[in-house]
Design brief:
It is a single chain. With 122 residues, the protein is an all-beta fold. The protein contains no helices and 11 strands. The strands form 2 sheets. Strands 2, 4, 5, 6, 9, 10 and 11 form a 7-stranded mixed β-sheet that branches. Strands 1-3-8-7 form a 4-stranded antiparallel β-sheet, with no helix packed on it.
Amino acid sequence: VQLVESGGGLEQAGGSLRLSCAASGFTFEDLAIGWFRQAPGKRREGVSCLGISDGSTYYANSVKGRFTIASDSAKNTVYLQMKNLTLEYTAVYYCAECHFSEYGMADVFDTWGQGTQVTVSS
């Protein structure tokens, strides 16, 4: 399984970014794939998780209404559309296999790529 993140960058507060996670090496529809982030000096946290086959989603409370997760099965890609960015969203964003419930989300394998840096400026 290989997941490669892209799409990060420098954006002003209030702006938008779309992150992409390109997946390969497995049957895309069989999994749940999500986004995690790690801000400087903080632990990595789950942001959003998507069940590819049924479209079920989970969003952390801090991003509800601002982030949208979606997939394109033709491209084996999961996207994270981020809008109305705030300074607190500055972090390295990672995609990974995930699972979730009403209580939260977590990664499946604790295996991480390089991530993509998102920096929000004032």
